[in-house]
């Protein structure tokens, strides 16, 4: 079984299964073209615990908790659970912050980018091209010796903290906890945050995805990086399987709606779709994994990945508190009002790209 | 002369792969000892080395790390 998951066939099966589950989650109530999103969902969770007050995007997403706990389970069973960390945690935190901001300017992580493509939202092509450019730039830095340094073994308790937080949040969700009348935990009553599949289905699918992704090392950024850097297409086969399966399910359920204008939770501000994902791609490449992979690694005890995830929660909170996230296109009396980020979001994207470029150029291994 | 050693313990992917690839590219033939501390790095280095027609022998050590002996013919 171990060899199956590291084989190409295993990667294709895992990619197809993840694509299928993502598409089913959309049918079962998650927002359109958002069966899974490894940035929007943490953004909803950030809102649920009060890190932002955008009332339409607040929900404790069980898919994320399941993903972390599934990866934990798989790592424990396969003796790969290894608490570790200490590789430039502050840098990783800010990579997480900027990754979330970049992705929320595009309105989705690479996972949602693929789901948007699978439903015919062509704006996603622009964003995914931006991510590829960001990852390519990251590859350039890696070739020149970019590194955040080594991680080291940590005490076992460190590996339990992030999964423990996920269990706590799951408890809040199941008990619909409210610490004070009308306040925290927040659950949207309208908008994308109010749209969700049944809790147990989301949790089960999330956990299954966590197991599959931990075993196969499924990573949307890694797929592009490995193809560009070392001509290794192993991860890419899983991504293609994900995309094709989601497309076929969408086709069968009538969820394909091809076009550019007023697509679900999407905008036609092409320059910022592109640049937002350049920033996100850079952050994922410099941080060593796409947002999904960061959650799976957190489950298997990687404290550095957990710090990146914490950065994403905070970045997502800031993205809404500081109006950095893009607004989706709107239809007003049959006229499309093009969305996109405002000036603060545009400044944040440029600042993030400058931050990543400076990091890529300065965090380098000494020649040995 | 001792075989060249690449100590990639604690480095996250793709750094171990890049370090080993660089070592393979800079030698005509011979053996490289590679130290990694995760199954993921182990798999990735093995897949890359085998794609370059190298053979790889893997041994797990008591501390949970791995020694990969990469042979370039």
Task: Itemize the secondary structure elements and their pairings.
The complex is a heterodimer of chains A (368) and B (73).
Chain A: H1 2-6, H2 8-27, H3 40-48, H4 62-77, E1 84-85, H5 89-106, H6 110-118, H7 123-143, E2 152-153, H8 156-175, H9 199-216, H10 220-230, H11 234-253, H12 270-287, H13 291-299, H14 303-321, E3 330-332, E4 335-337, H15 343-362
Antiparallel strand pairs in A: 1-2, 3-4
Chain B: E1 5-7, H1 15-25, E2 30-36, H2 39-51, E3 55-60, E4 66-72
Parallel strand pairs in B: 1-2
Antiparallel strand pairs in B: 2-4, 3-4
Summarize the structure in words:
Chain A has 368 residues and is mostly helical. Chain A has one domain. Chain A has 15 helices and four strands. Chain A has helices at residues 2-6, 8-27, 40-48, 62-77, 89-106, 110-118, 123-143, 156-175, 199-216, 220-230, 234-253, 270-287, 291-299, 303-321, 343-362; strands at residues 84-85, 152-153, 330-332, 335-337. In chain A, the strands form two sheets. In chain A, strands 1-2 form a two-stranded antiparallel sheet. Chain A has a two-stranded antiparallel sheet with strand order 3-4. The mean pLDDT of chain A is 95. Helix content of chain B is 33%, strand content 32%. Chain B contains two helices and four strands. Chain B has helices at residues 15-25, 39-51, and strands spanning 5-7, 30-36, 55-60, 66-72. In chain B, strand 3 and strand 4 (66-72) form a beta hairpin.
**Helicity of chain A, in percent?**
55-70%
Largest sheet of chain A: 2 strands, antiparallel
Largest sheet of chain B: 4 strands, mixed
Distance between the termini of chain A: 39 Å
Beta-strand content of chain B: 25-35%
Q: Structural class of the secondary elements of chain B?
A: alpha+beta
- Write the element-wise H/E pattern of chain B from the N-terminal end onward: EHEHEE
CATH class of chain B: Alpha Beta
**Average pLDDT score of chain B:** 92
Domain module count of chain B? 1
Kindly provide the radius of gyration of chain B, computed on alpha-carbon positions and rounded to a whole number of angstroms: 11 Å
Question: Which strand order does the major sheet of chain B show?
Answer: 1-2-4-3
